[in-house]
Design a protein that fits this description.
Distance between the termini: 41 Å
Mean pLDDT: 90
Radius of gyration: 19 Å
Number of strands: 13
Order of helices and strands: EHEEHEHEHEEHEEEHEEHEHHHH
Number of helices: 11
Largest sheet: 7 strands, parallel
Strand content: 15-25%
């Protein structure tokens, strides 16, 4: 599968209508929360849209309640929006059933209110690669969830190419950071704090660019406020290439514990998946950590002037959040 032609030229300076709302749908998740904070700090009028209209931790922003599967309700929650951000993340086991419905509803809602739609995506549609992933890397998914991600991204980009609305797709690698739930986040930081063995899926010594959640949020905000293309894909900038072992070692160094790393290959994870449903859901994605997992975000870094958070700082902030009361 070849990716749709979405390589943008450097965007012209563009500032959304200052009276327009930046509506973050899925604002209760880790990425959505940080995006709300970034946009609010930049001076935009922000509306945090969640299923129950909850407070997402940034004083001074509007809140709204909406079912993300209901286009009419979403359109009401996104009224007066200049930009709508798709940060909805259904429960993994319900992706096939809910993700397409949510995405179609968001395309319809953004189109109805005349807003740009910015979609928070990942890199699963690229499949097996042997070098850095760029925005022009062909889509060759090797997992059912990768196929689903490719299909959803194509629907978003096709809506933009057809002129229904302006769209931007922002792709992150393996996420880590405060509040993030991912393979890396779940297996590294709590273990480092408690002196437990770090459980690593795949090869810990291959090139890796984990994405700090704040950098994902900053790139989404930049694509919403500074992109003028009808349909464009952007990758999150990263501070450079590291490895899983180096990231875990840095976490243990800052935590004051000794690194003990246990490696698990895909065969072992699949065997565990035969009895543990969560492992079964994630087993098909282990291939990412058995190849170089490097996301090239240099295009967005140049276009938007985005810095990337150094791994040392990202680890420090993640450990602080992980060790906070109630975590």
């Amino acid at each position: 599968m070849t990716a749709p032609a979405t390589a943008p030229v450097a965007p012209a300076a563009r500032t959304p209508d200052p009276s327009g709302v930046h509506a973050v749908v899925g604002a209760g998740g880790a990425t959505g929360r940080r995006l709300v904070a970034h946009l609010h700090a930049a001076g935009y009028r922000v509306r945090a849209v969640t299923r129950d209209g909850r407070d997402v931790g940034t004083p001074g922003v509007e809140t709204a309640a909406a079912d993300a599967t209901d286009g009419a309700t979403l359109a009401g929650a996104c009224r007066d929006a200049a930009v709508v951000y798709h940060c909805v993340m259904p429960v993994l086991a319900r992706w096939t059933r809910e993700f397409p419905v949510v995405t179609d509803a968001l395309v319809e809602a953004a189109s109805q209110v005349g807003a740009r739609l910015v979609y928070a995506d990942d890199t699963w549609m690229y499949g097996r690669v042997d070098g850095p992933m760029t925005e022009d890397t062909p889509w060759r998914p090797v997992s059912t969830k990768g196929v689903l991600r490719a299909w959803i991204a194509e629907r978003v980009l096709s809506a933009g190419a057809a002129g229904r609305l302006q769209v931007g797709v922002v792709r992150a690698g393996e996420l880590y950071g405060p509040g993030v739930r991912s393979v890396v986040a779940g297996n590294v930081f709590r273990a480092a704090l408690r002196g437990w063995p770090v459980q690593w899926l795949g090869d810990p010594d291959l090139p890796l660019t984990p994405t700090f959640v704040d950098d994902f949020a900053a790139t989404l905000a930049a694509a919403g406020a500074g992109d003028s293309a009808g349909a464009a894909v952007w990758h999150v900038p990263h501070p450079g290439v590291t490895t899983g072992r180096a990231l875990a070692a840095e976490a243990c160094r800052q935590a004051g514990t000794r690194l003990r790393l246990v490696r698990h290959g895909s065969r072992r994870v699949r065997a565990l998946g035969s009895v543990v449903p969560l492992a079964r859901e994630g087993a098909e994605m282990v291939y990412q950590f058995e190849q170089p997992f490097v996301v090239d975000g240099s295009r967005a870094a140049r276009a938007f002037g985005l810095p990337a958070t150094p791994y040392e700082e990202g680890v420090r902030r993640t450990l602080a959040a992980t060790s906070a009361p109630g975590r």
